[in-house]
Design goal:
The protein is an all-alpha fold and 467 residues long. It contains 18 helices and no strands.
């Protein structure tokens, strides 16, 4: 195994820290939501917006950010993203009311969109072959770790200090990364691509309008012009975005990829599975504090069995899928997670974590460990290596949009309040989404991926992790 050179170690360290803060901030906030709501008010609507304002800008701009990184230079874009993320994090921590908090969270998401593709682009631009694969593996391990430890760290900060300190976690790693970035000496970047700013704006505005309508309809009703007008506008803008991608010579979202069987069906399965995961993570983190009254740290630790099982079994599941094919694992895994979600129906007024929640977490962890690596293999293995970057970025965007939409629908799912009945309703919906994801995989996924489509070339893009 060839060791990393000093430059390669520096590149990997910079890439990990840049993405770490983005993924950490996306998960650390969940257990802070009840405390935010208690201090600033707004109830479940504020909680939804705190999560979704971040996801809207992050998911809508991540593909555009890949083009920006290619056009203006990875180091330059990353430096801008780090500074902007740090400033936005401080603004969130100092927010005096829900509106300022939500605007600052949206700014965080926009800055985060600059960090993920530019960080991976540094790796792909400076390494090749086995060294590149190993570097991406290290990057994935650390960024996945950020998502897994986020709820626990958030709980500790909420209980011991304040929810505001949750958003200051990133300041130190951002400062360290800016220092390391200043030491990074790479060849002069040559602008190679044209940035489709119009498509980026269409995607962001379309998603934003749709999510606004979905969240606020619980309060204002679908008959209100303040709801149906943004809803229709969101649908139209999203449709125009898709039409533009179909006709563009250099699309942000190359629709031709979805004609590859395993890529198309795999992303459809991703939509359902990651919608279920996002719903489950949100509900567990919030309800265990608002219902049984657990402290934030305990609520963050509730999902720890899932983390442990993922660490222990994911690589083995990937190896098994390599021998037997991904279809079986992508079917059994989500169906097993559906059973785990149904076990949460045992949660009652006399709360007992060990008998009512822990069994569900174990089953969910087993199912997730069986699903993630085969899902990644099925989707990226179906696409030619030369297009694996954009394929991964698209799948990343699909998973984030899935979480965005299901959180936007949370009030409808739980009936307006995350009480015990709402918790049970969320468990039913979560189980249904997991089950549909498993059925989709059984119908569409095959052992031998479809031959990569020989379609019009697309602009180079930066790879992102399949989440």
């Amino acid at each position: 195994m060839t060791p990393f050179t000093p430059l390669q170690r520096l590149v990997v360290s910079v890439a990990i820290l840049a993405s770490f803060v983005t993924f950490l901030d996306g998960t650390v906030v969940t257990v802070a939501l009840p405390a935010i709501s208690r201090e600033l008010g707004g109830g479940i609507v504020t909680q939804q917006w705190v999560v979704d304002s971040y996801l809207i800008t992050l998911s809508a701009l991540i593909l555009l950010a890949g083009s920006v990184s290619d056009a203006y230079g990875r180091v330059t874009v990353m430096r801008i993203g780090l500074i902007a993320f740090g400033v936005a994090s401080v603004a969130v921590a100092l927010a005096p009311d829900p509106l300022v908090l939500i605007i600052a969270r949206a700014a965080q998401g926009a800055a985060g969109a600059l960090l993920v593709p530019s960080s991976l682009a540094l790796i792909t631009a400076t390494m090749r072959g086995e060294v590149q694969s190993r570097a991406i593996g290290v990057w994935t391990a650390f960024t996945t770790g950020a998502q897994l430890i986020g709820p626990l760290m958030g709980g500790l900060f909420v209980d011991l200090l304040s929810w505001r300190f949750v958003f200051l976690i990133n300041v130190l790693p951002i400062a360290v990364n800016l220092i390391m970035l200043g030491r990074l000496r790479l060849p002069q970047h040559v602008r190679t691509v044209r940035v489709d700013w119009v498509s980026g704006a269409l995607c962001a505005l379309g998603l934003g309008a749709l999510v606004f309508a979905l969240i606020e309809q619980e309060r204002l009703g679908w008959a209100s012009p303040a709801i149906w007008m943004p809803g229709i506008a969101g649908i139209i803008l999203t449709a125009v975005f898709l039409i533009r991608q179909r006709r563009s010579d250099a699309p942000l979202l190359p629709l031709s990829l979805f004609r590859v069987r395993n890529f198309g069906w795999g992303n459809l399965s991703t939509l359902f599975v990651y919608a279920a995961l996002s719903l489950n993570g949100f509900v567990i983190g919030v309800y265990l504090q608002q219902g049984p009254g657990l402290p934030a740290t305990a609520a963050g630790m509730a999902s720890l069995p899932i983390t442990i099982l993922m660490i222990l079994l994911s690589s083995r599941a990937g190896a098994w899928a390599g021998k037997l094919g991904p279809r079986l694992f992508m079917t059994v895994g989500p169906l097993l997670m559906a059973v785990g979600a149904l076990l949460l129906l045992t949660v009652g007024t006399d709360f007992d974590y060990w008998w009512q929640v822990l069994p569900a977490m174990i089953v969910l962890g087993l199912g997730l460990a069986l699903t993630v690596a085969p899902l990644t293999s099925a989707i990226l293995g179906a696409i030619d290596e030369s297009r694996s970057g954009i394929a991964s970025a698209v799948n990343n965007a699909v998973s984030r949009v899935a979480g965005l939409l299901v959180v936007a629908l949370l009030s409808t799912i739980v009936g307006g309040a995350l009480d015990l009945d709402g918790f049970h309703s969320a468990a039913w919906v979560t189980a249904t989404l997991f089950a549909v994801g498993g059925v989709v995989s059984w119908i569409g996924i095959r052992r031998n991926p479809a031959e990569p489509a020989e379609t019009d070339a697309v602009a180079p893009a930066t790879p992102g992790p399949v989440r």
